[in-house]
UniProtKB/TrEMBL annotation:
One of its GO terms (cellular component) is extracellular space. It holds the Pfam family TED_complement. It comes from Chiloscyllium punctatum. The keyword Disulfide bond applies. This is Alpha-2-macroglobulin domain-containing protein. It comes from the Eukaryota.
Amino acid sequence: MNGCIGDIRQRVDNEWFYSGYQAIYQDDHHHDAHPYNVSAHHVVHPFYSKSKSYLTIQKCQQKLACDSELHVGVHYIIRGMAAEADSDLAVFYLVMARGVIVNMNSKTISIKGSEDSEGHFQLSLPVSADLSPIARLLVFAILPGGEITGDSAKFQVSQCFQNKVSLHFSVAEDLPKSHISLNLHAEPNSLCGLRVVDRSVLLLKPETELTQGSIYSLLPVQDLQNYSNDLKSHEEHYCELQDPFSKPEPSGLAMGDLGQLLKDMGLQILTDTEFHKPTNCFIDRVYDDSIMYMNFFDAADYLEMDEMPVLAEEMLDASNELNINIEANKIQPPRRIIEIRKYFPETWIWDLVPVRSSGIVSVPITVPDSITEWKGSMFCTSHVGIGISNTATFKAFQPFFVELALPFAVVRTEGFTLNAKVFNYLSQCLVVKVTLLNAQGFTVTAESDTEHMTCICSQDSQTFSWHLLATGLGQQNLTVQAESIASETLCGNEMAIVPAKGALDVIRKSVLIKPEGIETELTHNSLVCPAGKPITEEFQLELPKDIIEGSSRAYVTVLGDILSSAMENLDGLLRLPTGCGEQNMVKFAPNIYVLRYLNKTDQLTRDIQEKAVGYLRTGYQNQLTYKHRDGSFSAFGDTDHEGNTWLTAFVMKSFASARQYIFIDNDTLGDTVRFFQRHQLESGCFRNLGYLFNNALK
C-alpha cells in the first residue's frame, strides 16, 4: 500500500512569498543533549481562480511500488455554490503515463450549503506496470459558474513489467562439476531467453547488460511534458484576435492556472469554460517590423529511425556427469577416478526455455570447471508482455585449487615459464605436492623439476614454475595436479591436515604453438556457373621450398554470392575517412556501398549501421575543409591554386549517394553544380582543371 499523508497547506491568491518552517528535535537517549532546530523553506506561487475555488493534491515524494494501491488525498475549497442546501459536485481525475491517458474517472463529493466550503476526499488508484516509470495525475472540477479548477501531481513509479519474471539457482555456492538446477518463474506459456555468463564478461562492458533500466530507456516517451512551440498558447491566440501584431503582456508575477497545468502534462482541452487567467495584450513594434522576415527561414527536421536488429544465437550446453569422492588419510586408498578441470567457458548457458502452463520451470545444469562467480538473467515474452529478471548469482568455488597462468600463444622453438598458483582457503595448513603431469608439445628444461612440495597455510597461496620449450604445433595441452598429502612435518607451528573432500585438483588448459617464420597465404579464385550441370575444377597447390615443416594448411570456401567473402570482414571494409581530400574520399565512398549492399540483402545490423554512419559524418566534415570558394574540391583545399574537376565530380556523386544516410547541405551540392556549369564546354564536356594525385579516381 502506498500512502501519502501529512503536509503543510498554504493558500495564496495573487502573490508569491517565501515560507520558512522550523521543527524542534531533542535526543532523549543522552542526558546532556539539548534541543536543536532544523529549518526548511518553500516558495509558494499563486494560482488563478476566478471564484477563488481550489483543488490541491497531496504530493508524494516516495517511489511507488508496482502492484500496489495508491491512496492520495485531495483538499478542496469551493466558493460560489448555492448556500441554501447541500449539493453534489462531480470531480474528474485522469492518470497519464508514457504520453497516454491510462485511466479516467470521476468522483462525486457533497458540498455543504455554504458559500465557502472546505474539505477533503481520497482517491484510490491501482499502481500497475502501465504507470511506470512516471505517472501524472490531474484532478479537476467544472463549477456551476462555468469555471474549471484543478491540480496536478507527478509520481515516480518503480520500473516493472506485466510479465513477472524471476530466476534463482538452487544453491548459492557449490563445487565445479556439481549438479544443480536453475529455477525459472514467469507468466504461463512464456518464452524465455536464459543467459548465464562469467562475471568478468559483464565487467568488461557493463553498459551492454540488459536491465529494467536499459529497456525503459528505449521507450520513445517516458513522460509527456509541454508540447511543440509551434502550437500557439491561449494567450497568443487571444491577443492575435484583438490585433494581428499584439502579444501577451509579460508579467513578473509567476501566477499559474489550469491551462498551464494542462500544458505541463502535454494536454490540450476543447471547452467553452473558463480555465485561463486574464490576459493583457500589447503591440510589439519590434515584432511588427521583423515578422515579415521570419517566414523566409523555415527548416525541416528529419528523424532517422534505426531498425532494431534481432540477434538469435545458439550454444551447446556441455556437461560432465561425474563427482569426485576422495577419501584421504587411508594407508591403501582404493583406486580413484581423477576428474580433470578442463571446461572454462565465458558463456555457460545461452538458450531459449519455454515456460508451460504452470509458470515454473526447473532446468538441471552442471557447473563448469571455472573457479568464478556466474551471473544469470532471463528475458521473457508472452501474451501479457515482456519481463526481465533481476540478476541471479552463483559462486563456483572449492577451498583448495590450482590455477594456471598461460599466454594465448607461443612460437615454436621459443621458451616460456609456466606458472601454477595453488590456493588454500581452508582453516588449517596443508602439505601440497604440485606435479606437471603432461606437457604435450613442450620440453621441460633440465633445471626444472616436474614435482614440487611445500606447506601452504590458511588463506595463503604459493606459485610454482616450470621452464618449457615449445616443440609442437597447434593447440597443445598442459596438465598440472595439486594434491594435499599426509605428512608429519610441521607447517610452522601447525600440524598439516588432509581434507576429507577436495584434497586433489587437476587442471588442464591449452596453449597455441605457432610455427616460426613469416606467414604467407596464397589464394586461388574461380567463378563457376553450373547452369544445372555438375562442374569439376582442379587446382594445383605448389608449396614453397623453404616452408616450415608442419605449418602448411589449406581450406576451401564455396560461396553463392560474389560479395559474400568481402562481407565476412566488414570491419575491414568500413574505414574511418582520414587524410587529404583524395585519401578522405577513397575511404568515404566504400562505406556508402557497404551500407547499401547490406540493406538490400537484409544483413544490416544496428552496430554496423551506427559505425558506418558515424564514419560518413566524419568523412563529410573532413571533406568540407578541402572545398574552394567556387564549389570545387582539391587534395589540399585552399592551399591548391584551383580545384580538380575529377575529384569534384567524385565528391558530388558520393555526397549525393550519402544523403539517404547523413545530412548533406544542399548549398554544398548547389555550389558544386554551379562550378560544373561555369566550366562546361560547348561540346558538352568539362574543362580539366587542377591536379589529381591518384589517377585511379578517374
